[in-house]
Amino acid sequence: MPVLQYKCKSCGKTFDELVGKYDEAVVCPACGEIAERDWSGEVYSATGKPVKKCGGNCRTCGGCK
């Protein structure tokens, strides 16, 4: 299960969330609205090291190598 970064469009809060799937709906803990994935956060590979050339969008990526 991945930990992803989200940002609420309603209140602006950014937070990390452990999700079961990448497309799972996530609710903001501050205001209760549906939050969107924040692609500006740090991206790490499965080894925990920062990935140098990764945009964070796993759907369009060939995988962390």
General description of the model:
By secondary structure, this protein is mainly beta. 0% of the residues lie in helices and 25% in strands. Strands 2-1-4-3 form a 4-stranded antiparallel β-sheet, with no helix packed on it. A hairpin with a 6-residue loop joins β3 and β4.
What's this entry about, in short?
The protein has 65 residues and is an all-beta fold.
Key features of this structure:
25% strand; 65 residues; 4 strands; mainly beta
- Nearest-integer average pLDDT: 78
Category from helices, strands and their pairing: mainly beta
Output the radius of gyration. 12 Å
Low-confidence stretches: none
H/E element string?
Answer: EEEE
The helix tally amounts to 0
Q: What is the percent of helical residues?
A: under 10%
Report the end-to-end length measured between terminal Cα atoms: 19 Å
* Number of β-strand runs: 4
Using the alpha-carbon principal axes, give the shape.
globular
Strand fraction: 15-25%
Sketch the major β-sheet: 4 strands, antiparallel
- The strand order across the widest sheet is 2-1-4-3
